[in-house]
Amino acid sequence: MSQQLTLEISDEVYADLQRKASAVGISMTEWIITVLSRQGTMTSGTVPSLERQEQARQKFKSHAGAISLGYATDIENQAIDADLAKAYADDY
User: Considering its fold, how many domains does the chain have in total?
Assistant: First the structure.
Protein backbone atom coordinates (compact mmCIF):
# COMPACT_ATOMS: atom_id res chain seq x y z
CA MET A 1 0.00 0.00 0.00
CA SER A 2 1.27 3.48 -0.76
CA GLN A 3 0.11 6.96 -0.02
CA GLN A 4 0.50 10.17 -1.97
CA LEU A 5 1.74 13.30 -0.26
CA THR A 6 1.57 16.75 -1.81
CA LEU A 7 3.88 19.45 -0.49
CA GLU A 8 4.16 23.12 -1.26
CA ILE A 9 7.77 24.27 -0.98
CA SER A 10 9.63 27.39 -2.00
CA ASP A 11 11.56 27.57 -5.25
CA GLU A 12 14.81 27.69 -3.30
CA VAL A 13 14.04 24.48 -1.40
CA TYR A 14 12.91 22.78 -4.61
CA ALA A 15 16.11 23.77 -6.40
CA ASP A 16 18.21 22.52 -3.47
CA LEU A 17 16.41 19.17 -3.42
CA GLN A 18 16.76 18.86 -7.19
CA ARG A 19 20.49 19.59 -6.99
CA LYS A 20 21.02 17.00 -4.26
CA ALA A 21 19.08 14.34 -6.15
CA SER A 22 20.89 15.07 -9.40
CA ALA A 23 24.25 14.84 -7.63
CA VAL A 24 23.59 11.18 -6.83
CA GLY A 25 21.80 10.43 -10.10
CA ILE A 26 18.28 9.70 -8.86
CA SER A 27 14.94 11.44 -9.06
CA MET A 28 13.99 13.98 -6.45
CA THR A 29 11.19 11.72 -5.23
CA GLU A 30 13.58 8.80 -4.77
CA TRP A 31 16.07 11.04 -2.98
CA ILE A 32 13.43 12.38 -0.55
CA ILE A 33 12.11 8.88 0.18
CA THR A 34 15.64 7.59 0.80
CA VAL A 35 16.51 10.45 3.16
CA LEU A 36 13.25 10.14 5.08
CA SER A 37 13.63 6.36 5.34
CA ARG A 38 17.15 6.68 6.74
CA GLN A 39 16.04 9.31 9.21
CA GLY A 40 13.23 7.05 10.40
CA THR A 41 15.57 4.15 11.07
CA MET A 42 17.98 6.39 12.94
CA THR A 43 15.32 7.80 15.26
CA SER A 44 13.41 4.57 15.81
CA GLY A 45 16.39 2.77 17.33
CA THR A 46 16.10 1.30 20.77
CA VAL A 47 16.73 3.56 23.72
CA PRO A 48 19.55 2.30 25.95
CA SER A 49 18.57 1.10 29.40
CA LEU A 50 19.05 3.41 32.35
CA GLU A 51 21.99 1.28 33.45
CA ARG A 52 23.69 1.64 30.04
CA GLN A 53 23.00 5.37 30.02
CA GLU A 54 24.61 5.72 33.45
CA GLN A 55 27.63 3.66 32.33
CA ALA A 56 28.06 5.91 29.30
CA ARG A 57 27.71 9.02 31.47
CA GLN A 58 30.37 7.77 33.90
CA LYS A 59 32.71 6.87 31.04
CA PHE A 60 32.27 10.38 29.64
CA LYS A 61 32.86 11.99 33.04
CA SER A 62 36.06 9.98 33.51
CA HIS A 63 37.66 12.10 30.80
CA ALA A 64 37.18 15.33 32.77
CA GLY A 65 40.48 16.57 34.13
CA ALA A 66 42.44 13.93 32.23
CA ILE A 67 44.83 16.53 30.82
CA SER A 68 47.14 18.53 33.06
CA LEU A 69 48.76 21.71 31.79
CA GLY A 70 51.38 21.50 34.51
CA TYR A 71 50.24 24.71 36.14
CA ALA A 72 47.11 25.94 37.83
CA THR A 73 44.56 27.77 35.73
CA ASP A 74 42.02 30.13 37.19
CA ILE A 75 40.16 33.32 36.48
CA GLU A 76 42.97 35.77 37.17
CA ASN A 77 42.54 38.82 34.98
CA GLN A 78 46.19 39.87 35.18
CA ALA A 79 47.41 36.50 33.89
CA ILE A 80 44.80 36.54 31.13
CA ASP A 81 45.78 40.08 30.13
CA ALA A 82 49.47 39.12 30.08
CA ASP A 83 48.74 36.09 27.89
CA LEU A 84 46.71 38.21 25.47
CA ALA A 85 49.37 40.90 25.30
CA LYS A 86 52.03 38.26 24.59
CA ALA A 87 49.88 36.67 21.88
CA TYR A 88 49.10 39.98 20.16
CA ALA A 89 52.75 41.09 20.31
CA ASP A 90 53.89 37.96 18.46
CA ASP A 91 54.09 38.50 14.68
CA TYR A 92 53.76 34.78 13.92
Answer: 1
DSSP assigned state of 65: T
Q: Which domain holds residue 32?
A: 11-43
In the Cβ-directed half-sphere of 41, how many Cα atoms lie within 13 Å?
A: 5
Residue type, 79: A
> Per the domain annotation, does 15 fall within a domain?
yes
The reply to whether 84 falls in a domain is no
Q: What is the pLDDT of residue 64?
A: 77
d(CA 26, CA 32): 10
Helix locations, 25-92, DSSP H: 28-43, 50-61, 77-89
Measuring CA to CA, how many Å separate 5 from each of 8, 29, 32, 33? 10, 11, 12, 11
What digits encode the pLDDT tens for the residues 16-73?
Answer: 999 999 999 999 999 999 898 887 655 556 677 888 889 988 888 887 776 777 776 6
Residue 16: inside a domain, yes or no?
yes
